[in-house]
Structures are given as C-alpha cells and as structure tokens.
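U., I forgot to send this yesterday:
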Amino acid sequence: MQWYLDGVPGARYQGTVHQGVISGNGRLSLPDGATYDGEWVNGKQHGRGTLTAPDGSSYAGEWKEGEPDGHGTMKRASGETVTGNWKQGSYVGPDEDKAQQ
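Result:
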C-alpha cells in the first residue's frame, strides 16, 4: 500500500498501515531524497531500520520512538563510520563487549 503524508508535500510511504497509522515494516521517501526503511510503531521509527540522507550519510540500527536508540552504525558522507550505542538520538559510546577487549 502507498500513502502520501499529510503536511509533507512529495513524501510517500509504502508499507504496513494499521487503523490509519503507519505501523509495521515500510519505506518512507521524502522529497529531498532522504529515505527510511524499517520498522514503525504508531507513526514513528521503532525497532530496526536504516535512515539514508540525501548526502549519502546513513544510520542503520535500532530506533525508539523516532530516534536512534540502541546499537547502530552511522556512516557520514565523509566516509567516517561510528558504531556503538545510541540513546535518544545521541551517540553514547562504543559497544561494551568490544571496548573491554
């Protein structure tokens, strides 16, 4: 199923919708070229997913209520990669098991 988001001209969502709310697996494409592929709960990224920005940077990992939260990898447009733990959208540190090695 394909939906067009109210208030975001050119945005479209393809995936699962439950009682009119984005929930389940799907892909959101924004007019600037940004995309999110992954899990949704109550209209927010929640679970595992990948956000790719128009400049090619990306975050792949765990999401909670629309923000990176849990284990994930950010790849910047410059090529730099940061893997570790995220909390409410902010990087909080490397994986504990790798940091102890």
